[in-house]
Design goal:
Blueprint: H1 2-16, E1 20-21, E2 25-26, H2 35-39, E3 47-54, H3 58-61, H4 79-97, E4 103-106, H5 114-120, E5 125-126, E6 132-133, E7 141-148, H6 169-173, H7 183-189, H8 191-196, H9 203-209, H10 224-227, H11 253-258, H12 261-265, H13 274-285
Helix pairs in contact: 1-4
Length: 288
């Protein structure tokens, strides 16, 4: 049966890259958040194969001797580059074998709500901070998916979202008090988003970035809600070599200035341009 063969082949490619695979989902189980991207597919989607790439490593997390000043996800090279390579491999290996199947891959720019779909696919639970939490790797995972035009084998399955235990740690620790169940408010007020904004952060946010409110100083992103999560106390390290090498824990003005444009573009903190990360370095260096 082409459905089972296709999904099995895709899962084999993903697992060989040490990427976690969920069960194929009917597309009807997914929440569409970008209808224009669905319209641009050129085919009618019937199923989704969710996958997750764990990225935590102790070297990237840092310690008292080498503290991080950026979010853990941004310490290795940009995960978008990892997914681009992975998705190219999926296309190169699946297209010749299944010429009649139409599919497209996404990561981060998805037309569907990835966290909910990943939970329904069995990859983990949804935390109060809106992140997917896997019992093995915690919430330190990047999500991606393959959307295709063949149906998933439902066989009477129930696809249910799993929620965390609501311990309240992330809600209590959030420096911006933005974990309130309102996704739009969270994006607008989250310290991670505010450090990436091109607009000036303002005095209160600058104080948070410098660590003047008890949290660690940060020039890019925020991991507070993840670090206090009980499921993230001792996550297993990623088996993916991509996320274990080329690490930058503490960007500096000198280091950024020495980077070529290609080197800079390969980092997750580059997407807003040099001016934002350089501005943040100056803010954190200021003494109040």
């Amino acid at each position: 049966m082409i459905n089972n063969d296709f999904f099995a082949a895709a899962q084999s490619i993903l697992t060989s890259a040490s990427v976690l695979c969920g069960e194929p989902l009917p597309f009807s189980e997914c929440r569409v958040i970008a209808p224009h991207k669905i319209a641009a597919l050129g085919f009618e989607p019937h199923s989704v194969l969710m996958f997750a790439a764990p990225y935590f490593s102790h070297d990237a997390a840092g310690d008292t001797h080498c503290q991080r000043s950026i979010s853990l996800y941004a310490v290795p090279r940009d995960y978008h580059l990892f997914f681009a390579e992975l998705m190219n491999e999926l296309r190169e290996r699946l297209n010749p074998r299944f010429p009649g199947v139409k599919f497209e891959c996404f990561a981060d720019n998805s037309p569907i709500g990835e966290v909910g779909a990943a939970s329904k696919a069995g990859l983990g639970m949804i935390g109060d901070n809106g992140l997917l939490i896997n019992r093995k790797y915690g919430s330190f995972m990047f999500l991606g998916e393959l959307i295709c035009d063949i149906p998933a084998d439902e066989s009477g399955k129930k696809y249910e979202v799993e929620l965390c235990g609501h311990c309240g740690n992330c809600r209590a620790a959030c420096p911006c008090e933005c974990i309130d169940g309102q996704a739009v408010d969270k994006r607008a007020r989250c310290l991670s988003s505010l450090t990436q904004a091109k607009s000036a952060p303002g005095d209160e946010i600058e104080a948070l970035m410098r660590g003047e409110r008890g949290a660690d100083a940060t020039i890019w992103g925020c991991d507070t809600c993840q670090l206090v999560c009980p499921y993230n106390i001792s996550p297993e390290e990623t088996p993916i070599e991509w996320f274990r090498r080329d690490l930058i824990l503490r960007p500096t003005e000198e280091g950024l200035a020495a980077m070529t444009e290609d080197e800079f573009a390969s980092r997750a903190f580059s997407w807003r341009g040099r001016s934002v990360i350089e501005r943040n370095l100056k803010i954190v260096a200021e003494q109040k």
